[in-house]
UniProtKB/TrEMBL annotation:
Alphabetized UniProt keyword annotations: Coiled coil, Ubl conjugation pathway
Annotated organism of origin: Olea europaea subsp. europaea
Protein name: RING-type E3 ubiquitin transferase
Low complexity composition bias: residue spans: 106-118
Coiled coil: 291-325
Stretches the record annotates as Disordered: 97-122, 139-165
Enzymatic reactions: S-ubiquitinyl-[E2 ubiquitin-conjugating enzyme]-L-cysteine + [acceptor protein]-L-lysine = [E2 ubiquitin-conjugating enzyme]-L-cysteine + N(6)-ubiquitinyl-[acceptor protein]-L-lysine
Highest rank taxon of the organism: Eukaryota
InterPro entries: Kinase-like_dom_sf, Prot_kinase_dom, Ser-Thr/Tyr_kinase_cat_dom, U-box_ubiquitin_ligases
Length: 645
C-alpha cells in the first residue's frame, strides 16, 4: 500500500468501494500504523464497520484470533471467539456537548448571572474547545509515542556509538577539523536551544490559555451547580405535582369506570328507546290518521258547541228565574198552615240527638255550643238548648217561639218547632256553618274546617241576601222588627252558600232610634266581605281597595268601589244626619250592584263559581267518587269560565 496523508480507515473505505471487495480481513496491528493520528485502532475499526457498504463483510483479527465488533448506544465492545470482552470503545463527545448549552435568557438561573458572563463565554468557548481538542490529540500522540520510545532508545544507543566513534575520530582529527566539528555541535545546540525556546513560548501560551479556560470552566461549574440546585428544587415540586396528578388520574380512572358503566346503561337504554321510537313511529302514523278524523269530528263538535252555547244562555236565564221563583214559593209555603211549626216531645228530641251525644254537638271555631245536630222525620235539623243558667221564663220562651213562628223569609233561619219540656227550639240545619268561619278561618291553620274561600260574586250575593233579610225585618207588618246583633257569626250558609240570618236580639219590636244600628252593622259586614277580616283603619276607599281579600279572586274594581262607598256611608250614619239613608235606599243600591255583577258573569268577563258542601252524615249512600278525599264531604262545584262564554 502506498503511503498517503489520509488516515488508514479512509484509505480502506476507498479500496472497498473502488474494487468491490466483499470480504475484508483487517489486523489491529495495521490500524496502529503511523498514518493513524487522530483515532485509535479500535475507533478506526468501528468507523470502518459503520461506513462500509452493505455488500462488504468485515473480519478483524488480533494475535491470531478472530474478533467480533458489537455496537451499543454511543460505544461498542470487542469480543473474542469465546465471548470475552477484549476492549471497550466509547465515542468522545465534543467540548460543547460535555458542558451543555447555556440557559435561555428568560430562565430563572440567568437572572443571577452577570450581564458580561454570556458574551464572555460565547467569545472564548470556540478557543477553549479547540484547546481541549488539541489536548485530546496530544494524549493520543503520547500513546503512540510510548511505542516509539523503544525505537528512540535504540537510536540513542546508535548515537552514543556514533559519538564514541566521533570522539575517536576527533582524536585523529587536526585542530581545524576539530574546530569545525565543535562549530557544528554548537550550531546543533543553538538550534536545540532555539527549538526549546519556541516550545517554551508555545507552552507559555498554552498555560495562559489553560488558566483562562480553567477560570471560565470554574465560573461555568458554579453556574451549573446553581442550575442543578434549581433543578433539584424543581424536581421536588415536579414530584409533588406528579403525585398529585397520579391521585387525580386514579380518581379519573374511577370516574371513567363509572362513566363507562353509565354509558353502557345509556347505550342499552338507547337501544330500547330506538325500538320504542320505531313503535312510536308506526303509532304516530296511525295517530295521524286518527287525528285527521278527530279534526273533522272537532269541527262538527265546534258547530254543536256554538248551538249548545245559545241553548246554555237560555237555560241559565231560566235557572235564575226558577231559583227566584223557588225562593218565593218556599217563603209562601212557610207562611201556610201546612208548614206550620209543631211542638216536639222530650223523647223525640232525645232520639233525634241520640240522647245529646257529644259527637252531634256543633263546634264552630273549635268551641262547644248548646246546639246539637239531629234528624227528625228524615230531615236534618239544628236543636238549640237553653240551659238552666240562661233559661228564659215560660212566658218569655212562649213569646220567643211565637215571634219566630211568624217570621218566614228565604234569608232568615226558619224555626221548625220547639220543646217546652227541655226548653229547646228546633231550626232548619245549615250545612256550611256560619259566615264568620268562611271569612276568617278559610286558608288558615284550621284542618277541620270544611268550607273553601268564598269568591267575590258569592260574597256580593250574600250581602244582597242579608240586606233583603234586614229589609224584611224593618218593613214587617204589623210590627216592624230589628236584628240588633248583626255580625258574620249571626249569618249561616246552607249547602248552596245561601245566607240566612238568625239570633235576633230582644227586644224585637222595631224602634226608629235603633234602626241605624242595623245599617251600621251591615256597613261593617260589607267591609269584612271585601277585606276578609275586621277593618279598623282609615275609612278611605283607596286604602280599602288596596287590601281586598285575594282569596275571593279578582274583584271588579268598579263594583268593589261602589260597595266601599255604600259601606262607608253606612258606617258614617248617625241618627238624624242622613234622612235619605234607610233600608229601602240600601236595598236598591245593593240590588243595582248585584245586577251589574250578574251581567259581568253572564258576559264571561269574570269567572263565577257555585260552591256547596253537604255533611257526610246526610249522604252515606253517596258513591265515594263524589266525596272530597280530605274533608269527606260531597262537593258540588259548577264553574263558568271565559272559554265557554
Amino acid at each position: 500500500m502506498e503511503k498517503s496523508e489520509q488516515p488508514i480507515y479512509k484509505q480502506l473505505l476507498e479500496i472497498i468501494s473502488s474494487r468491490w471487495i466483499t470480504k475484508l480481513v483487517v489486523s489491529l496491528t495495521v490500524m496502529k500504523s503511523s498514518a493513524w493520528k487522530s483515532r485509535t485502532a479500535i475507533s478506526g475499526s468501528f468507523y470502518v464497520l459503520r461506513q462500509k457498504p452493505d455488500f462488504c463483510e468485515l473480519f478483524v483479527i488480533c494475535g491470531g484470533r478472530l474478533l467480533s465488533l458489537r455496537e451499543e448506544n454511543k460505544g461498542g465492545f470487542i469480543e473474542d471467539d469465546r465471548g470475552n470482552a477484549v476492549s471497550k470503545f466509547t465515542e468522545k463527545n465534543s467540548f460543547r456537548s460535555l458542558l451543555g448549552r447555556r440557559h435561555s435568557p428568560d430562565s430563572p438561573s440567568s437572572s443571577s448571572r452577570s450581564n458580561n458572563s454570556p458574551d464572555e463565554w460565547e467569545k472564548y468557548s470556540d478557543g477553549i474547545e479547540q484547546y481541549v481538542n488539541q489536548l485530546l490529540a496530544l494524549n493520543e500522540e503520547e500513546e503512540e509515542e510510548e511505542e516509539e520510545e523503544e525505537e528512540e532508545e535504540e537510536e540513542e544507543d546508535a548515537n552514543c556509538k556514533e559519538n564514541s566513534a566521533d570522539s575517536v575520530m576527533q582524536e585523529n582529527m587536526s585542530g581545524a577539523e576539530r574546530i569545525e566539528a565543535l562549530k557544528i555541535k554548537i550550531q546543533r545546540v543553538e538550534d536545540a536551544i532555539q527549538f526549546n525556546r519556541k516550545e517554551a513560548n508555545v507552552n507559555k501560551e498554552r498555560n495562559a490559555k489553560a488558566l483562562g479556560a480553567i477560570s471560565l470552566c470554574n465560573t461555568r461549574a458554579m453556574e451549573l451547580e446553581a442550575c442543578i440546585s434549581e433543578e433539584v428544587l424543581k424536581n421536588v415540586d415536579i414530584k409533588k405535582e406528579l403525585d398529585f396528578r397520579k391521585d387525580e388520574l386514579f380518581e379519573l380512572q374511577g370516574e371513567v369506570g363509572e362513566k363507562r358503566s353509565k354509558l353502557n346503561s345509556i347505550l342499552e337504554l338507547q337501544r330500547e328507546l330506538k325500538n320504542k321510537l320505531q313503535l312510536s313511529s308506526s303509532a304516530k302514523s296511525r295517530a295521524e290518521v286518527q287525528l285527521e278524523k278527530a279534526v273533522r269530528t272537532r269541527n262538527d263538535m265546534v258547530r254543536e258547541i256554538e248551538e249548545l252555547r245559545g241553548q246554555r244562555d237560555v237555560i241559565q236565564r231560566r235557572i235564575e228565574f226558577r231559583r227566584e221563583k223557588d225562593a218565593i214559593g218556599c217563603a209562601d209555603r212557610l207562611n201556610t198552615s201546612s208548614f206550620a211549626y209543631r211542638e216536639f216531645t222530650a223523647a223525640e228530641i232525645r232520639a233525634a240527638t241520640k240522647d245529646f251525644s257529644e259527637g252531634l254537638r256543633l263546634k264552630p271555631r273549635g268551641r262547644l255550643t248548646n246546639v246539637y245536630k239531629g234528624c227528625i222525620n228524615h230531615m236534618t235539623v239544628a236543636i238549640k238548648m237553653y240551659g238552666s243558667a240562661n233559661a228564659p221564663s215560660p212566658e218569655a220562651f212562649a213569646a220567643k217561639v211565637k215571634i219566630l213562628s211568624q217570621i218566614r223569609h228565604p234569608n232568615i233561619l226558619a224555626m221548625v218547632g220547639f220543646c217546652s219540656e227541655l226548653n229547646c227550639i228546633v231550626f232548619e240545619y245549615m250545612h256550611n256553618g256560619c259566615l264568620h268561619d268562611a271569612l276568617f278561618l278559610t286558608g288558615k291553620s284550621s284542618s277541620d274546617y270544611k268550607n273553601k274561600a268564598l269568591n267575590w260574586h258569592t260574597r256580593l250575593r250574600i250581602a244582597a241576601e242579608v240586606c233583603s233579610a234586614l229589609g224584611f225585618l224593618h218593613e214587617a207588618q204589623p210590627k216592624p222588627l230589628i236584628h240588633g246583633n248583626l255580625s258574620p257569626s249571626k249569618i249561616i250558609l246552607d249547602c248552596n252558600n245561601v245566607a240566612k240570618v238568625f239570633g235576633l236580639k230582644p227586644p224585637w219590636p222595631y224602634d226608629n232610634s235603633d234602626s241605624k244600628s242595623d245599617i251600621r252593622a251591615f256597613g261593617n259586614l260589607m267591609l269584612q266581605l271585601l277585606i276578609g277580616r275586621n277593618w279598623a283603619a282609615t275609612m278611605e276607599i283607596a286604602a280599602i281597595l288596596g287590601n281586598l281579600d285575594h282569596l275571593a279572586g279578582e274583584w271588579p274594581l268598579d263594583l268593589a268601589m261602589e260597595l266601599c262607598t255604600i259601606a262607608i256611608r253606612c258606617l258614617s250614619n248617625n241618627q238624624g244626619e242622613d234622612e235619605e239613608l234607610d233600608i229601602g235606599w240600601l236595598m236598591r243600591e245593593i240590588n243595582k250592584v248585584k245586577k251589574k255583577a250578574n251581567q259581568l258573569v253572564a258576559n264571561g268577563e269574570y269567572t263565577s263559581a257555585i260552591e256547596g258542601f253537604i255533611d257526610i252524615d246526610d249522604s252515606s249512600n253517596v258513591p265515594s267518587a263524589f266525596l272530597c278525599p280530605i274533608y269527606q264531604v260531597i262537593t258540588v262545584f259548577i264553574a263558568f269560565s271565559n272559554k265557554f262564554m
